[in-house]
Structures are given as C-alpha cells and as structure tokens.
Amino acid sequence: MKKLLLACFLAAGISVQAQIETPQPSPSAKLTQTVGLTEVTIEYSRPAMKGRKIFGELVPNDKMWRTGANANTKITFSDDVTIGGSAVKAGTYAIFTKPSAKTWEVIIYSDASNWGTPRNWDDSKVVAKAVAPVNKMPYKTESFTIDIANLSSTGADIEFKWDKTLVVVPFVVPTDKKATASIEKMMGGPSAGDYFSAARYYLEEGKDMDKSKMWIDKAIEMTKDQPRFWYLRQQSLIYAKMGKKADAVKIAKESLALAEKAGNKDYVKMNKDSIKEWSK
C-alpha cells in the first residue's frame, strides 16, 4: 500500500512539474506589414543584451549570423520584390547577415528550414545580397528588433536594431505593375471567368435565368477560340433549365467531345447522362 501511495505521489509531482511554464530567453516575434499592395511577414526570435557587449563579441564580426536566435529568421513576400538590385520571387526565405564594424552584408537565402545557420552553406541558394552601412543610434535597444519602416507605395526599409546599432536595407515592391493591371482589368469589363461564375451562381440559386443565359453566352463568345468543356456544360444546363432542350443537347454534345479529348471522365459521364435525359 505504501509503495502504491509513493508511486501516486511521484506521478502527481511529475504532472505538476510538466505544467510549469517559464518565459523564453529569446521570445519569438512575428511582424506582418502591407507595403503598397504586397504583404511582407517576418518571423524571428529576439535575444536581449542583458549587460553583454553585442557586436564584435556576442555576435562576432565577419561571421555568418542567423540574425536573431533559435531558428533562422524568415521573411515572406506575397509578390516578387527587389532587394539589393536583385529580383526575389514571391515566397519564404531566410535572412542571414554578416555584421562588421562599418557594414553588414544582408543575405536572402532560399532555404528557410535551418536551425541557426546552415551546416553546409550553398551559394546557389543565395537569391539576393545587400551591403548596408552601420548607423549608430543615440539610445540603446535592449532586445534585438527587426522592423519594416519608411513605407511608401513603392517600397520600404527592413531595419535591424540592437544595442546602438541600426542597419537599414531597402526593398522595392511591384505596386505600379499590380495597380495598373487591376485598373486595366476593371476598365476592360468583366472577364469570361466573371461571366461564367455569375451565370453559374444564378443557375444554382434559381435566380433570373435570362441574365444567367446572357452571361454564359458572353463567356462562351469570349472563349470561342479556345472553347472550354466546363463552360459549355454550364451553358447546356442553363438552356435545359429554360426549357430549350434541343439547344441544350447540341451544346452538351460539344462539351462531351471536348471532355473526351481532354480525358475528363467525370464531364464525359455527366454530358452523356444529360444528353440521354434531355433527348427523351
């Protein structure tokens, strides 16, 4: 009995111990900022000074640094951007830095899965580099900080701050390209896909079928050079719903032929079933 009680006591102690939570010495941080029309996210860990000398000692000069603590710092761009004159495709990257007394080399690295710096450095994974001057601040920053500052419609700055050191790396976003494309699309009117989606919604919700027919007819007309079997399938359903069975069968046969050519068995079966039903 005593052994059983002792075992229960020890198990309870372990359970209590497992629930203890303490703050991390280098807490994680996540920053998301919209720059122009591009979303930029930075994830990193924030070590503190704690009375230590940082650059030149804790962070050695001219050595590759993970740019924070724990896992490598990650940056994600929703669009293609430009850093240090190099094009960086949309995606997630690691930020590595090589600090020195007067400048930092900031490296955008395609492999963002490392804990710290890569064991085997691969130059082919370097997608961009920038050399930035070291600026001295009149005040100390206790915890390592990365910020996105000086926002404009065309770009912003990535700021690295710790102790009295400030390093700034600009990047450029494709706002004008995206905005112009959006404007031209809207000014040019709805696309075939817009008409298709509107027609399908009206059919599925039992709304105005004359409008549904008008929209699907426009979608078909806009894609007549490259007909799409799923568009034709939708058109046949709309015509059948309106009682135009003969036209629906003719359109379904066109959709069937294209679906067979594309090897889409689902649309082949749906069209065959509908043709059989509407031909009665």
Which key features would you list for this structure?
9-stranded antiparallel β-sheet, Serine Threonine Protein Phosphatase 5, Tetratricopeptide repeat, 280 residues, alpha+beta, 36% helix, 7 helices
- The best one-word shape is elongated
How many angstroms separate the termini?
Answer: 84 Å
Q: Total domains, how many?
A: 2
Number of helix segments?
Answer: 7
Structure, explained:
This protein has 280 residues and is α+β, with helices and mostly antiparallel strands. It folds into 2 domains: 23-176, no CATH class; 190-274, Tetratricopeptide repeat domain (Serine Threonine Protein Phosphatase 5, Tetratricopeptide repeat, Alpha Horseshoe). The protein contains 7 helices and 9 strands, in the order αβββββββββαααααα. The protein has helices at residues 2-18, 175-187, 192-204, 209-222, 229-241, 245-262, 265-278, and strands at 28-35, 38-45, 73-77, 81-83, 86-88, 91-99, 103-109, 126-149, 155-172. A 9-stranded antiparallel β-sheet has the order 1-2-3-6-7-8-9-4-5, with no helix packed on it. A hairpin with a 2-residue loop joins β4 and β5 (86-88). 26% of the residues are buried. The model has no long low-confidence stretch (mean pLDDT 91).
